[in-house]
Amino acid sequence: MSSNLEIAANAVMAISIVLAGRNNVHSWWLGIAGCSMFALLFYEVRLYADVALQLFFIVTCAIGWLQWLRGNHGGALPITTVQPLRLLWMALAGIAAAGLYGLMLHHYTDAYAPFIDSAVLVFSIIAQFLLMGRRLETWPVWVIVNTISVPLYWSRGLKLTALLYAAYWLNALISWRHWQRQRPPPLR
Q: DSSP per residue over 61-99, as a string?
């Protein structure tokens, strides 16, 4: 059974994530509110990497909000892409960081599924930085994160959260396509 906190966190974050996919700046302040609620929820179920992730999201939501409004020399930040080699380095660094953080959680805490929880943490951070920079590649990374998150949250009894993350998975696919259409054509 879902708690009131889980219901409220998911409701606020659902709106925030849909707005992000629609390239709407109001996604950011709603993200701050939703992440605050999720931090409390994940602490209650001992998903400590997810608590740390929510605290990171709160800070980056504030920064992302400003970047989207004024990050292009005072103007709105356009949608751009990341060079493939840089994306490869991000992926390799993410795998290494998830492994190291998973080892730390495994040895020093009573964390549930420390390596899976760490993968969610690390790749969410990567996706968030891409989102803050309005990079098109944020959406496939969110697809990966949501694919991992659904069974993790379901296994901890957070069934509503797992179902919402399944919806976020679909939203990431739709948003990826939407951003591709909104992205300005590359300069030649």
A: HHHHHHHHHHTBTTBPPPPB---HHHHHHHHHHHHHHHH
